[in-house]
Amino acid sequence: VTRRGDVNAPGQDRPPGGDRSASTKTPRPDRTASTDTPRRDRSASDRPASAGTPGRGRAANANTLLVRTALVALGVLLAARGLWLLKAELRPFSNALSIAKWLVAGPLLHDLVVAPAVAITALLVTSKAPPHWRVPVLTGLAASGVLALIAVPVLLRPSAGPPNPGLTDHRNVLGLVITLAVICVIVGAAGIAAKGHDRAGGRDGFLAQLRRDRGQLHRGRGGRAVAGRLRARLGGPRR
Amino acid sequence: MSTGVRLLPKESDFTAPAHDARVTSRVGLWLGVAFTVCFVTGLLSHAIQHPPGWFAWPTRPVGLYRVNQGLHVISGVAAVPLLLAKLWTVYPKLFARPTLRSVAHALDRLSVLVLIAAALFELATGLLNATQSYPWRFFFPPVHYAVGWLAIGALAVHLGLKLPIIRDSLAAPVSADVRPSTHSHSRLVHNAPGAEPRPAGHTNALSRRAFLGVTGVTTGAAVLATAGVAVPWLRRVSVLDWTSGTGPQGLPVNRTAAAADIDAAVPWTLTIAWPGGGRVLTLDELSALPQRTAELPIACVEGWSASATWTGVPVRDLLAHAGAPAGHAVHVESAERGGIYSTSTLPAAHAADPLTLLALRLNGEVLNPDHGYPARIIAPSRPGVLQTKWVRRLEVLP
Predict the structure, then answer these.
(1) Which DSSP symbol is given to B309?
(2) What was the ipTM of the complex prediction?
(3) Interface list for B 95-134 with A (CB within 8 A)
């Protein structure tokens, strides 16, 4: 089922003419393999070179095994150094307990709180938001969420040290509020632009259009097409 | 969907295109760069504060330590959205069954757990420390340092274990409709020709390319919002900058005279000592010596930095005036009682540098008590915590 404004999986096979993805309309050189060649051929061309002559493949595999073994061995040594350094910090027992708590809290909080919250939010947005709003809204939510997360220690300052002029007297609530407002405005503008473009008869999503413009610039067709599209986007009738 | 309420999702419930090794390894590549920068700058900062015998840190450019710590904090902030994005791409694997397939698989999962625990620990404690919060019992610097080794070690193990899938998925185009196997770690598998399209749920989700775009935009936003801590000209843009960048005489203070328990009533003298000799100077004598003015940054281990104009006596001139031998490291003692940062050691290179000052004035005024009145050390390319304040004794080491 192809939905209007779908920006997904541009390489997927679609009925001819009904395909809205930029990659099929204007194949870029680096993507021709993924759009024009039949699947069976692709599987061979996508494989790394090591799948070529058997002899070379064996040598490459041996090299890979060597690199992998070296990485694992090096990693074990580095981690062992970390544990050895950590051992000196485990006394008194309350220290060890505190370190353990902070080590365990990260994976637990992520797996049980952060990731489910992301999953539910993303599910809501992708099922409820109109197609042209999806990318702007998800981008805005991701940026807002990360900025809010980074702002937590700045705003709350749990167990702060003694006050330091110029360093700890700056609770930037206003800064975060302004940032979130700016993100909302950008999301709104991007969504409206994509929607307006849809109504004006544009068939691609906003991002696909941008990508195509970039492709034309790359191929040296100059900025005329881009300028025309900008004019169209700024209000004039399309062509 | 099956009947009844399932508490846990299944791996196959996650149908979004972003749950794909091609996305994971691309985000992982960026994250690897951020982690490596963070680890190397952290190592350097640690070595500057606890120099092993073979280690030397240059005195020029004067802002070198400032750049080092700026990179440390900015790469750490950038790693927050990158790590979250990367974890999201592999989140379905948490629900893969059977939980443990073999000893090798168990070790693989253990290494991933250690990596995630250590990485989140470093980012969380680092960010809290940068904003001067300490909601824990342990002493931050050695623990953050030790877990840094643990994280980079687990990362190397992880790279070693995943190398084939990383290589294959980086070589495969992001948009093409091939999927790396969720079970085999060795090869990408390709959807068979005419295979049934993936479940309808995924068509609404972000494409792989769009997911990478969102990750990039979010990382950029996080960096812009905080980089002003270390990059002065970004201060206006950095809305989450946790420093105001001002303070007494236009410069932030990281330890006040009150916190350091400095008793202004005690008469001040400066003692200069060296093997076999010594000299005591009063503040008037010190002020009468030829002064030098220099623009030098003060750059904290916690990432913030600010430039200021300092005036004082170059330490090497002061030692020469007192008759102390040149070319040695110099131990600096503060009037601060107790406190692990009440002393510091200027390496020989810094002690000999004409820009290393025993400063008496800041931005044209006599030092504020919070900036170390009557005299403090300010040296080029040094951690702020070693720019000892309220100096009362300089000892030339043998």
Answers:
(1) E
(2) 0.88
(3) 111, 113-114, 116-121, 124-125, 127-128, 130-134
